[in-house]
Each structure stands twice: as C-alpha cells, then as structure tokens.
C-alpha cells in the first residue's frame, strides 16, 4: 500500500517558479505527476523511474518542468520553471508499485489529494 501527500503549491506570477513535493509511504516504483483544471480531464505531466534514470514529459511542459526523486526520503519533486497562466491547475502525484512509465491515469494505482498551482498573468 502506498500513500502520497503533495505540498508546495501556491500563487505565483507568470515567469516565476515553484517546486512541488510528494512524500510517499510504502515502496512506490514509478512515480508521476498529473494536473487537472475544472471541467477537464486530468492530464499527464511527467513520470520518473525508481532509479531516476528514465523520465518522460508531456510536450506542454518539456524544457520548463523537471521531475526528480530522492529514494532515501521516499519523495518525488516537480520543479516548475517559466510558469504560464495555462499551467494553473491542481497537481496530483501518482504512483505504481511496478516499473512502467505510464502516461495515463489508469497506469497508476495510488494518488495524492492534490495541490493547487495558480499562475497569474
């Protein structure tokens, strides 16, 4: 069983940065981030393997966001740079206990409660 708790969201201006954290209990293997705005489907942002040797990003965030993890702390991070108003969303941490860098919600078994990121123009 894996439990996930996100933190680090907030209100920033366009062009600024934030770092989201997701602390996990249990032993997640693949961890990822998704985001969702009201009325829209939750969308994939990034995912990382347990060794951190492999990462995958959505095209919309490639070059601006960076996913990393610290297995000693059982924590995954999402560094958000050059933020845009369209990045405004609730960001969710996700995990699975087997190795697969999935891009779909159905690829993940565990979810956090979400953290709000708001980017003003």
Characterize the structure shown:
By secondary structure, the chain is mostly beta strands. 0% of the residues lie in helices and 50% in strands. It contains no helices and eleven strands. The strands form two sheets. Strands 2, 4, 5, 6, 9, 10 and 11 form a seven-stranded mixed sheet that branches.
Topology, element by element:
Layout: E1 3-7, E2 10-13, E3 18-25, E4 30-36, E5 43-48, E6 55-57, E7 65-70, E8 75-80, E9 89-96, E10 110-111, E11 115-120
Parallel strand pairs: 2-11
Antiparallel strand pairs: 1-3, 3-8, 4-5, 4-9, 5-6, 7-8, 9-10, 9-11
Question: Which labels suit this protein?
Answer:
121 residues, seven-stranded mixed sheet, 0% helix, globular
Q: Kindly report how far apart the N and C termini lie.
A: 40 Å
State the total count of DSSP E strands.
11
- Along the chain, the helix and strand elements come as EEEEEEEEEEE
The percent range for strand residues is: over 45%
**Approximate shape:** globular
Summarize the structure.
This protein is mainly β.
């Amino acid at each position: 069983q894996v439990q996930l708790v996100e933190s680090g969201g907030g209100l920033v201006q366009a062009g600024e940065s934030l770092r989201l954290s997701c602390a996990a209990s249990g032993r997640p293997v693949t961890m990822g981030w998704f985001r969702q705005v009201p009325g829209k489907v939750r969308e994939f942002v990034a995912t990382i393997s347990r060794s951190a040797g492999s990462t995958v990003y959505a095209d919309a965030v490639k070059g601006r966001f960076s996913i990393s993890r610290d297995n000693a702390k059982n924590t995954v991070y999402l560094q958000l740079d050059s933020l845009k108003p369209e990045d405004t969303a609730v960001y969710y941490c996700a995990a699975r206990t087997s190795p697969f860098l999935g891009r779909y919600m159905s690829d993940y078994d565990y979810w956090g409660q979400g953290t709000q990121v708001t980017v003003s123009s």
